[in-house]
Amino acid sequence: MGSFGLRCKSETGLAANIAVNRIGSSYLDSANTDKLSRYTTVDARISYERKGHSVFLAIDNLFDEEYSCYGYKTSSGTKKFNPSPGRTLTMGVEVKF
User: Do residues 83 and 61 touch, judged by C-beta distance below 8 A?
Assistant: First the structure.
C-alpha cells in the first residue's frame, strides 16, 4: 500500500493537487486461499485559496477504476464483493478559523 502526491500552488492562490494511490491485494478468507485484486486510483483537485478560505473542485478515482476494497467468502464458498464508488466529483468551500 502506498501513495504519492504532488501539489503546486501559485502566488495568485490557484493550487492543483494530484495523488496516485496503490493498494495491494488482500485475502478474502482466514485460510488465505482467495484474494481481492490490487488496484490503483488517481485523485485530483484544483482550488483557489485566499485569506483563510478556498473554493475547490476535486475528482476522486479520476480514471473510474473498478475495484472492491472489501469482500468475503461465505461458508458455502461463494465469493462476495462490495464494489467501491466510481469517479466522484466534489465541489465546495472551505473556511479556516
Answer: no
Q: What is residue 94's three-state secondary structure?
A: strand
At 73-84, the pLDDT tens digits run: 888 989 999 999
DSSP type of residue 38: P
- For residue 34, give every residue at least 6 positions away whose Cβ sits within 8 Å of its Cβ, in sequence order, or none: 27, 28, 73, 79
How many alpha carbons fall within 13 Å on the CB side of residue 65?
18
What is the structure's pLDDT at 10?
96
The C-alpha R_g of the chain, in whole angstroms, comes to 18
Residues with Cβ within 8 Å of 75's Cβ and at least 6 positions away in sequence, in order, are none
Instruction: Give the CA distances from residue 10 to residues 55, 68, 72, in Å, rounded to whole numbers and listed in that order.
Output: 15, 37, 46
Question: Angle at the Cα of 68 (from 66 to 72), degrees rounded to 5?
Answer: 150
Report which residue type is found at 5.
G
